[in-house]
Amino acid sequence: MKIKSKILGHENALIQIEIGDTHYPKNQLTEENVDIKNDETEEIKSHHLITEGMALLDTQMHFSTPQTIEFEIDEESIVMNFICCNNVETQIDQLETEKFSRENTHNIFYTTNFKATFKIPAFEDLNYFSIILSKASYYTIINEDWELHKKFSNNILLKKPSYLTSKYLPFTPAIQWVIHEIKNCNRKGPLKKMYIEAKIKELLIHQLEAIISIPVQKEQMDQDDYNKLMHAKQILDQDFVHAPTLTELSRLISLNEFKLKKGFKACFSTTVKSYIIKLRMEHAKELFQNSAITVSEAAYKCGYKDISHFSAAFKSFYGFSPQKFKINWDIVQFWITGFLLLN
Questions:
Q1: 99 vs 114, which has greater pLDDT?
Q2: Same domain, residue pair 161 and 235
Q3: How many folded domains does the chain comprise?
Q4: Which of 94, 166, 193, 260 has its CA 20 to 30 A from that of 153?
């Protein structure tokens, strides 16, 4: 399988990867980094994790003038796609696509020969996170359990390019957290390969869960209201530490409180309050991976003025106190460090 990407008008390829189709447990995981900066006109950073049957691409771009990027995969592939930017005009040869990308949305698609064109606007910070799998590797991950997605799997068997779901769906907190864990993994060698493969499978589970559990109410919701609820989620994602009250959030998105509460639960399968707590608790877990931080510092950084309220929320969410989590995390890190030194 050959994966290639280039900026139209540029001589050199931005991405050029060649991998086999079959996944073997003993295959090594290799890493590549692309770092391009031309004064203030363009900046590109792309990190790639590669093994047989799989390539993970994490790409950030910023241009001062509009650009067009061509992307190709020359064989059958399944792509777990995560879009973290708006306003990119997309054209894919074999697939009917939404004309412009929507920030923090995801989907899965299958193609037999992927060819796409992306028109990048000027002065937009762009981020694409994609996991490209050969058909054999995808079969291995889901154990050929076609009951998970009968229509999509049938299209794969018929070699008919298609999306898993007709529209890109908003990120769930679980998807955001797993992407964060993959991006910030600092393990090395075989441990990193095991970790990344486990996280890819976890990410696929969360994608399938998000699609399987789409509430009926969302399909029946007014598009304008749905866009406002997406905006509400985006506001919370961007600043959950100083999250607005329900009344303030209602005012910010121009939607009454009743529709906000009911619609948010329908779209995201959680309440506004529970979503804020989830984001704060996931941030707390991330903070505690730095052994130097205290519980009171973490509480403050997560938006809590009262440590006891923070500790109670943490214990309710994870099942144990933040103090106990810190102790256990330090023990795990000590064990991993010792293992790496011995090997």
A1: 114
A2: no
A3: 3
A4: 193
For residue 139, the tally of other CB atoms under 10 A from its CB is: 18
Of 214, 27, 35, 58, nearest in space to 132 by CA: 58
Sequence-distant (6+) residues with CB within 8 A of 240 are: 276, 279, 280, 283, 303
- What is the per-residue pLDDT for 168? 86
Q: Which residues contact 125 (CB under 8 A, 6 or more apart)?
A: 60, 61, 62, 85
The pTM for the full model equals 0.66
The CATH number of whichever domain residue 133 belongs to comes to: 2.60.120.10
User: Would you place residue 10 in the very low, low, confident or very high pLDDT band (cuts 50, 70, 90)?
Assistant: confident
Residues 154 and 296 in one domain: no
Contact predicate 106/169, CB 8 Å: yes
139 and 258 inside one domain: no
Q: Which of 195, 212, 229 is the last residue of a domain?
A: 212
Kindly state whether residue 277 falls inside one of the protein's structural domains.
Answer: no
Confidence of residue 9 (pLDDT cuts 50, 70, 90): confident
Residue with tokens 């154990």: 143
CA angle 285, 286, 287 (to 5 degrees): 90
73 phi and psi, to 5 degrees? -130, 120
Chain Cα centroid distance, residue 279: 15
Helix (H) or strand (E) holding 77: strand 77-83
